[in-house]
Design brief:
With 270 residues, chain A is an all-alpha fold. Chain A is built from 13 helices and no strands. Chain A folds into two domains: 50 residues, no CATH class; 209 residues, MetI-like (MetI-like fold). Chain B has twelve helices and no strands. The chains are: A mainly alpha (270), B mainly alpha (286). Chain A: It is found in: Cell membrane.
Chain lengths: 270, 286
């Protein structure tokens, strides 16, 4: 009885796993085919095998430049977010007044506002002061994503005893030193969570950067969208482009899986 | 830190300034503009509720609303059933369960835009090839009408988000004390009884979390919509978020777009507030 159900679960698992992997198989295998090869058989393995699509789409996607832009924007925005929101959460959590309670509510209530409700005036305002570029974008990410980050940090901060602050104060540390030398290191598990959640969201974001970035600063999703407009009928190139653009994400996932799962769980459950 | 201390305000300045400039000021401006004839740059007069009443006869908006609502209902059900199913599957002890977790969650790492492109290929090329090989005509012509476009979007979303929902259910499933289940097993409870009488009630909080998560995500979907169908054919698969973007940036009706954006805000905020209220109530009940 026990044995039979284990076998059944195993088979079900394998089938579902294959079903989930099927789209990846489709894009990767077809990205190594010639246009004729795709037309002849979409489902089979590449025959004849060609890697020429990759060279062509690497160029057409301006892959090095869009990868660099994606990296700069994601890393800088996430570092800024970590710094600003941990500072904000620290100030709010260590101040037990009505004011800090009210400010926390302000941050939390901002989470109710969907992006589409603010995007038009937001981009108009930033445009009028010539801030529609990657620096403006980084600032916007701090504004949009600080609420959740502050909320997460604030929960962790309440478990760090205030005696830690006081001990450091007695030794002559000022507020900034207490924050950087004592508090920030103790927050690092939550910092990993905040970083993971925002890295995934910012790396994959399309709509906001598409309204903000000039062409020279295009990230991978933006470049991908442009590229698709030109190559929809040339699937061999488009699929090589897709494969190229998901390689960094899959590598990051396989490398940081443990933290990603923890971060995603924390972000959703708290 | 004291209210009046300089450090309190210095620590809060960066986030407060960003939040004001990026979220609250544009939100208030948008609210104001929704009552004017704003053209994206300036406005000449207040028009009262005209932009709002015009929505009632805006067929693309109404259509986008019902389309989105249907999409949300279907995906909330499917995502929770499949997400919980996957969670139950991978928490069984068998070889390769960790590998399966990795696989199920993987699509969630890829952005909605690229996911949409991946599935566009599968629906238009892969389905057609499969349909021809198996003589299944229903596999042909996907994404060319509203019906297959709808199910296409559902499939993409389910493929993407099931793994995410699975992760949340796993977190709750792992909190169930193993002794309780073993005790029930010794008492002769069947697998089905153990599930309905122990597992199910103990992961009830996960339902609330996942329900609202899938609800509000469903309403806000844009990228998948853009890259999979781009709202076509003839705007029949356009969802609310896309309708707002297109009203502003394709049609140039900025004031109308703002009115839509405010309605959109009310829907999304209401879902979140109901969740907060519901959670409070549950905590009181406990």
């Amino acid at each position: 009885m026990k044995k039979k159900s284990t076998v059944f679960i195993g088979i079900l698992g394998i089938l579902l796993g294959l079903l989930w992997l099927f789209p990846f198989y489709m894009i990767v295998s077809n990205s190594f085919k010639t246009p004729k090869g795709i037309f002849a058989s979409v489902l089979s393995l590449p025959n004849p095998f060609t890697s020429a699509n990759y060279g062509a789409s690497f160029k057409a996607l301006h892959f090095m430049s869009s990868l660099t832009n994606s990296l700069i924007i994601t890393i800088c925005s996430v570092l800024l977010l970590i710094l600003c929101s941990s500072m904000g959460a620290y100030a709010l959590q260590r101040n037990h007044s009505k004011l800090s309670g009210a400010l926390l509510m302000v941050f939390i209530s901002a989470m109710l506002i969907p992006f589409q409700s603010v995007m038009i005036p937001l981009t108009a305002n930033f445009g009028s002061v010539h801030f529609l570029n990657m620096y403006g974008l980084m600032f916007m990410y701090v504004g949009f994503d600080c609420s959740l980050s502050i909320f997460l940090y604030q929960g962790t901060l309440s478990s760090i005893p205030i005696a830690m602050d006081e001990a450091a104060e007695l030794e002559g540390a000022n507020r900034w030193q207490i924050y950087t030398k004592v508090i920030l290191p103790m927050l690092s598990p939550m910092t990993v969570t905040v970083a993971i959640l925002n890295i995934i969201a910012i790396w994959n974001d399309y709509l906001l950067p598409s309204l903000v970035l000039p062409q020279a600063q295009y990230t991978i999703p933006l470049q991908m969208f442009n590229f698709f407009g030109e190559y929809t009928k040339q699937w061999h190139l488009a699929l090589a482009g897709i494969t190229l653009s998901i390689i960094p994400v899959i590598l990051f996932y396989l490398f940081a899986q443990k933290w990603i799962i923890k971060g995603v769980t924390d972000g959703a459950v708290k | 830190m004291k209210n009046r201390s300089l450090s309190f305000w210095l620590f809060l300045t960066p986030t407060l300034v960003a939040l004001a400039l990026v979220v609250f000021i544009p939100m208030l401006e948008g609210l104001l503009y929704s009552f004017t004839d704003w053209d994206g740059l300036s406005f000449t007069k207040m028009v009262g509720f005209k932009n709002y009443t015009a929505l009632l006869t805006d067929k693309t908006f109404i259509n986008a609303f019902w389309f989105t609502l249907a999409f949300v209902i279907v995906t909330v059900i499917l995502l929770n059933v499949i997400g919980l199913g996957l969670a139950l599957l991978v928490t069984q002890k068998f070889k390769g369960s960790n590998l399966l977790r990795t696989i199920f969650f993987m699509p969630n790492m890829i952005g909605g835009l690229i996911l949409g492109f991946i599935w566009q290929f599968i629906f238009t090329q892969g389905f057609t090839a499969l349909g021809t090989a198996l003589h299944w005509s229903w596999l042909n012509g996907w994404l060319t009408n509203a019906k297959t476009g709808f199910w296409g979007l559902v499939i993409v979303t389910v493929w993407q988000m099931s793994g995410y929902i699975m992760i949340i259910y796993i977190a709750y499933l792992q909190n169930i004390p193993q002794e309780v289940i073993e005790a029930a097993e010794i008492d002769g409870a069947s697998a089905w009884q153990r599930f309905t009488k122990i597992t199910f009630p103990m992961i009830a909080p996960a339902f609330t979390v996942c329900m609202f998560l899938t609800l509000s995500n469903g309403f806000k979907i844009y990228d998948q919509n853009l890259s999979l169908t781009n709202g076509g054919p003839y705007q029949s698969t356009q969802m609310l978020a896309m309708n707002i973007v297109n009203t502003a940036y394709n049609s140039g009706n900025f004031a109308a777009a703002e009115a839509k954006a405010m309605i959109f805000f009310i829907i999304v905020a209401a879902i979140s507030l109901i969740q907060v209220f519901y959670n409070r109530k549950r905590e009181v009940d406990l």
